[in-house]
Amino acid sequence: MTKLILGGLAALLVLASAALWMLRPGSQRVEGSMAPDFSLSDHQGKTHRLNDYAGHWVVLYFYPKDDTPGCTQEACRFRDDIDVLGGLGATVLGVSVDDARSHADFARKYQLPFPLLSDPDGRTAAAYDSLLNLGLVKFARRRTFIIGPDGRIAARFDKVDPASHAQEVARTLRTLQQAKMTHTNQTSRQ
Length: 190
Hints:
By secondary structure, the chain is of the alpha+beta class. The chain contains six helices and nine strands, in the order αβββααβαβαββββα.
């Protein structure tokens, strides 16, 4: 009986520590700050670096786990809107801590036309304030960053609804691009 109580208390302590860790104040990757560089392999073995996309818009979305309901819905929405996002000059990159084989199965099963990047140690997710590390278990938090052609974070989404997020990203891209065009036109007239 004592072992059972001690085991329960130990489990409660671990959960409480994890909850406190998740609520701690930390650095925030804010809009306007430089996006952290990364070097990650995709589900086909190709290495992607943020520098590879210099001068282009990037939609970098983090998700917890391949082939789970919310992650599948979000990925399929990006798949369904890939022409709209591509028409806005954006490249979509998905990131989770799953391995390349899991990504390959996920991409094949749902015919995902964009790279899924493997971040097995969670280093990139952590650099983007998107890692949930519970010790033995790590997940990427569901967050998205729009990175501008200048390499800066143009928009950050912390609350993501997988069902409508791709459309929200497209609307935000249009707004960002219109604002940039307006600023460029005003600057050129001066």
